[in-house]
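User: Just a sanity check before I run the rest of the batch. Below are the structure tokens for the first item. I only need the designed sequence back.
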């Protein structure tokens, strides 16, 4: 594949340029490509310059060259030194392209006060011989007005005659009109509106033979929701309670100058309550909402008034997990300040940056990019490419996954996401009224097709089958009924009877609680000596497999060989061509001792069982993963320096290593994924995030296709 350069040219200000750049980074990363980004000339606002560059650095992992200031560029153009300016741009391009497959150049936002900016974009794109993607937004225009606007922008770059002008990305489709009030600024867009925009879009009329609509990005309120922390910093507020300050998100603002009965409907998930400190009724209402499980974004007390100590004493337990802050300005002044707060994302808000990248990438035409770049999807299995592939494979699998912890909030959120995205048909075990109440408190709409089963209604169906499965243990019907009170056991029976294809549990259960029923009722797969686990470690440059880090304390040499073969098989099933390193404290024949001998023996057993597998050991961690170390320690190894499946000699080593890498290098890990069972059952960490559960459900669905 020859190297490509894309020049992203905004047609005006306010198109969400950097968000589109982030989305393109993610879309190209999902194709397995390493992306470099350059912002050659900075915008006039210095704070915006730094924010954009910080965001690009965070997203691509590569810091762009220092941008030329707009003032400096203007001086060079005015002095007739435009050629010199373009030489500097070319120098930046050459610096960025050295270590990447694709370069994205982010153009300048055209500014009416700086008319030369549009011409600079044209000159930079021409100088770089880049493929041009226009970025625009409807900005309340009708289709005719948007067409005229785009035609003017196309004309600047030579129109349809310029074969380097690929097309445009239309951002903020269906965005609400700007309002000076923050009250209605974050009204959500409905799924049916998004569907109508994307499926029967009038925007398709903007296309021609050589000019494509490369993306229609629907406006999404959640992407502009700042953290409560951001609002506190913007207002320079005094923090009264910092619990949840950095994690809570403000989806709507309620200015409480009304009576309780007139504002109670505003007490929804993500609401920031703005009220004078002497409004005891508002504090009591907010405490009641929080006590009922509504995750408010926080309380902002205005007018420099402190609440009555007796009232605060009464509401303190309910508000203990809620951010509370105060400002000296009155409610009207505070509202005015909030209405002028920038919607831009902060570079340290990694959760929001990730959401923006995923949203943008999901609506950019990846198939067109793949065809244009003539790229093999497996060119490089980056973390983004792995996650993308995971979702694609799970969607194609169309499997049923039971979630025994159906009343647990994170599990409900994950099930809703998986159902909406078609990752799996999820079945929640729990009481419907409890699940619906949890969903309402979380601000989640349960999607159509999500199945909820009350354990009390179905338990009797599994008593006789369980007695039959466990008759060799003399299990009686009353004993079976008692064990089926545990929803993990109940879900495992559903799996044993092929009513579902997989099970995910562990958000509130231990690993033993999840695995024990599976070993009793599902058993191990044919040929498997034991059940083991792997983690997919999403390192910045590649995805690696670590095993076993969760199940077997001290496997024998034969068991270790079995873990290696299972792990290699799992890696291949998920698109990773396995190169297996058997990890030890010694490389090759240099060390002695029972521990290293176990690894040496396990290596020989695994090689004998599957001679075609690329596997070597014993290898030290650095020899297995680092090329220059491998060159001196194991120069003849086919694995050393390029291993992507690491098998640890015992649980102590494996668990310690995975956690050390995860925490110290801030690496996302997916797992543990259990292997060796006849049917897929997977365990969660009790600290699992919603995203962790979603990907574990996806893993389980894919595993079900391998059984």
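Assistant: Here's the designed sequence for the first item:
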């Amino acid at each position: 594949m020859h190297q490509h350069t894309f020049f992203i040219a905004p047609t005006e200000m306010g198109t969400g340029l950097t968000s589109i750049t982030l989305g393109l980074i993610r879309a190209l990363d999902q194709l397995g490509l390493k992306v470099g980004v350059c912002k050659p000339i900075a915008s006039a606002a210095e704070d915006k310059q730094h924010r954009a560059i910080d965001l690009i650095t965070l997203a691509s992992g590569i810091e762009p060259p220092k941008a030329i200031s707009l003032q400096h560029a203007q001086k060079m153009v005015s002095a007739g030194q435009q050629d010199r300016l373009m030489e500097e741009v070319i120098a930046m391009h050459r610096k960025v392209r050295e270590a990447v497959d694709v370069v994205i150049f982010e153009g300048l936002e055209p500014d009416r006060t700086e008319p030369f900016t549009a011409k600079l974009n044209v000159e930079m794109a021409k100088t770089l011989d880049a493929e041009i993607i226009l970025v625009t937004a409807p900005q309340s225009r009708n289709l005719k007005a948007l067409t005229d606007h785009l035609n003017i922008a196309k004309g600047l770059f030579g129109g349809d005659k310029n074969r380097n002008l690929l097309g445009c990305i239309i951002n903020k489709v269906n965005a609400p009109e700007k309002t000076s009030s923050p009250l209605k600024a974050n009204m959500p867009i409905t799924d049916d509106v998004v569907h109508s925009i994307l499926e029967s879009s009038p925007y398709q009329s903007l296309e021609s033979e050589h000019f494509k609509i490369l993306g229609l990005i629907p406006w999404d309120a959640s992407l502009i929701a700042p953290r409560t922390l951001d609002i506190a910093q913007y207002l320079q507020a005094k923090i009264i309670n910092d619990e949840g300050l950095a994690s809570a998100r403000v989806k709507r603002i309620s200015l409480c100058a009304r009576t309780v009965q007139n504002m109670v409907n505003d007490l929804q998930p993500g609401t920031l309550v703005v009220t004078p400190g002497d409004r005891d009724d508002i504090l009591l209402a907010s405490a009641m909402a929080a006590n009922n499980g509504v995750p408010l974004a926080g309380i902002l007390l205005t007018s420099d008034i402190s609440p009555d100590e007796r009232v605060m004493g009464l509401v303190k337990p309910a508000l203990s997990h809620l951010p509370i802050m105060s400002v000296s300005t009155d409610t009207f002044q505070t509202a005015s300040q909030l209405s002028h707060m920038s919607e831009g994302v902060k570079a340290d808000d990694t959760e929001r940056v990730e959401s923006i990248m995923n949203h943008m990438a999901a609506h950019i035409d990846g198939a067109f990019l793949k065809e244009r770049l003539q790229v093999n999807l497996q060119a490089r299995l980056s973390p983004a490419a792995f996650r993308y592939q995971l979702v694609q494979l799970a969607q194609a699998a169309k499997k049923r996954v039971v979630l025994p912890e159906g009343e647990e909030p994170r599990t409900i959120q994950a099930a809703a996401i998986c159902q909406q995205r078609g990752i799996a048909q999820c079945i929640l075990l729990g009481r419907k009224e409890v699940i619906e109440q949890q969903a309402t408190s979380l601000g989640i709409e349960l999607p159509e097709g999500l199945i909820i089963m009350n354990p009390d209604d179905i338990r009797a169906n599994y008593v006789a089958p369980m007695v039959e499965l466990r008759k060799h243990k003399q299990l009686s019907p009353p004993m079976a009924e008692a064990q089926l009170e545990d929803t993990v056991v109940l879900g495992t029976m559903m799996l044993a009877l092929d009513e579902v294809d997989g099970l995910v549990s562990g958000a509130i259960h231990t690993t033993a609680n999840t695995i024990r029923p599976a070993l009793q009722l599902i058993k191990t797969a044919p040929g498997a000596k034991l059940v083991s686990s792997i983690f997919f470690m999403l390192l910045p440059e590649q995805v690696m497999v670590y095993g076993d880090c969760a199940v077997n304390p001290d496997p024998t040499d034969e068991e270790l060989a079995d873990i290696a073969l299972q792990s290699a098989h799992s890696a291949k099933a998920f698109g990773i061509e396995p190169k297996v390193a058997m990890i030890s404290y010694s490389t090759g024949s240099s060390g002695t001792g029972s521990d290293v001998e176990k690894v040496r023996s396990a290596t020989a057993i695994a090689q004998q069982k599957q001679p075609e597998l690329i596997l070597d050991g014993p290898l030290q961690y650095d020899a297995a993963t680092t090329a220059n170390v491998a060159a001196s320690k194991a120069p003849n190894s086919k694995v050393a320096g390029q291993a992507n499946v690491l098998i640890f000699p015992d649980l102590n080593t494996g668990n310690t290593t995975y956690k050390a890498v995860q925490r110290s290098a801030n690496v996302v890990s997916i797992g543990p994924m259990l292997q060796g069972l006849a049917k897929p059952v997977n365990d969660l960490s009790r600290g699992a995030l919603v995203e962790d559960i979603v990907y574990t459900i996806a893993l389980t669905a894919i595993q079900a296709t391998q059984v």
